[in-house]
Amino acid sequence: MAWQPTPYTVPLLVAAVASFAFTVYAVGNRSRGGHALLWSFVATAGTAGVWSLAYAAQLSAASLSTTLFLNRFVWLGTAGLAVAWPAFVLSYVDRTAWLGRRRFVLFWIVPVAAVAAVWTVGVDPLFYADPSLVDAGGYRVLDYDPTPALLGFVGYTYAVNLFTFAVLGYAAAARDGVFRRQASALFVAGVAPLALGAAGITGLIGPETGLVDFTPVAFSGTSALLAWVVFRYRLLDVSPIARDAVFANLSDGVVVCDADGRVVDRNDPARSLFPDAELGVHAEEAFADAPSVAEAVTDGATDDEFRVTVNGSGAPRFLTVGVHGITAPGTARSGTVLLFRDVTERETLQRRYRALIEKSPNVIAVCGDDGLVRYVSPSIARLLGHEANEVEGRPVIDLVHPEDQREAQEAFERAFDSDEPVSLSHRIACADGSWRQFETVIERLFEDADEVVITATDVTEARRYEQRLQVLNRVLRHDLKNDTNVIGGYADLLRDHVDEEGDPYLDVIDRKVKTLTHLSDQAREIDVALHSDAGRSEIDLAALVERLCDSLESSFPHAAVTVSVPESAVVSADELLESAVRNVLENAVVHNDRDGPHVEATVVADGERFRVDVADDGPGIPPIERAVFSEARETALEHASGLGLWLVHWIVTESGGDLEIDTREPTGTVVRMWLPRAAEESD
């Protein structure tokens, strides 16, 4: 199939794209406006798009057979627009009675008959006599002699269009303000294509040979005018002429008052907001609960907007009120239109967010790309002693410690170039001249915004506690262990200088030295457990328990260890799980007062997890110590006697598991640990 470029292809495609865009927009906003107005607009825009697109294809065809075939689709758009355009105009002026089946048949019977004839008989010879392609200066166009049927159809369409132009012209003359501009723009949008089409038919414009229909070509220009009417004057949702098409179905409340301030019309949403706004009631009575609304009507305010709060059904409703004057042709102000928009949900959300920010324990600020603070939360007064209005408008790094300013400035600049939050640690000055440590996160407020939101968290006390814990941990791990080793060494030296009566005392010293050394080792394991970032890994719990039990029997030959595990029990747990299980097994022997302690270790499946049970026949763990771990806290009167069980608790919890300690009858303790199965075990 051969194709040719023409000067009219691009304008026609532009017209087609614009028309289809209007169609999609109108369908997407079908909840707005009246049913007849909306769908007649959709039909008008859609058929105009079909006409433009089909005619662009027809002009681009280089063979007569293809041209005549594509011309059939042109007739679909032409005939469709001949029906849709008058329907749209009648809907716009609220002449919906003409859209009934009996009357509207006068508008669609001729176009439908024409399309049916084209698709059954064909345009040749019904409408075109002796059609052919002729050269029009570098491209070929269709040339033909019009038949009486074609002249009759053209005459019919011109008559219908002249009728619609008269209706629109009267609407433009009879209205004022935005109504007149709206109707005038629609008048021009309808007249221009018809006029250009007539100029092309008569030969005033276009090629010297052949016929080019400039009607769809003109749609590329009138589409901009139509867009102006749709978006600037809100044709689909504020058509003042077709009251029933928009006013009654508007989701916002609308009340119309006359020049004397009395209610002459209102829709259902307005009636629900103001039950006293009955027809004929004065504004002062209708809006007794909102005096500012009544004042706007009586004072003649124009194009004003303000907020009011009304109590409906016991719950306050927040409304925005738009006040618009009505001016009839040849008169002064003849009334007022009040538009009530319910913004309760938006206002409630704004108040919640405002309260969250104002009561936040952090300092929250918004800063522009100029480096100046545009907003800072009131919490800055509580945390740093500065008033918010004193900080707003200042450079964001003014309060940052001089030694931290360079890093803070670099982080601030990176935040504008990154989609990810930027974090830093720095010091901020208090009003009394002291400094506090903050952890700050900087991130873009919106994707395309020139502002960043800064969230600064005061970590001064947390850093102090961390520092103290580090010192205590060093003392416990290093200094205490060194001193206990010294004590143990001197105790061994004393054995050669002490008689037999002193041996029991030296034995006590040895036991305590071993206890303190073990405590220091556990402190090291806990430090590793709490600061490890290794994450979880897949561990075969069955192999781990079996290996640790073998090691336990080697270290404590006098103990009897029973093991029961499946072939495989792969769990997802912290890599330090081995330390936890080893501590439980060793505690079962070390704290057992029997000459031959017995330990039972089992691994069983328990739903989506595996459970490890370690049971012994020792004296048991006192109830007060079990309570410490069930409540995960210690007090001066309730505390665990060592660090081992705390280590177990933290490792199991970090692994996503659970720990339980129970008394065993008649004597002893059972420690149960639940750990999640690995992914492959769950499948």
TrEMBL record:
Transmembrane annotation, as ranges = 6-25, 37-61, 73-93, 105-129, 149-173, 185-205
In terms of CDD domains, this protein maps to: HATPase, HisKA, PAS
Which SMART domains does the record match to this protein?
HATPase_c, PAS
The source's superkingdom equals Archaea
The way this protein sits in the membrane is described as: Multi-pass membrane protein
- Residue ranges occupied by any PAS domain in the UniProt entry: 349-419
Per UniProt, subcellular location reads as:
Membrane
Q: Which UniProt keywords apply?
A: ATP-binding, Kinase, Membrane, Nucleotide-binding, Phosphoprotein, Transferase, Transmembrane, Transmembrane helix, Two-component regulatory system
Q: Which Pfam family would be a valid example here?
A: HATPase_c
Q: Which residue range or ranges hold the Histidine kinase domain?
A: 475-679
* Annotated protein name in UniProt: histidine kinase
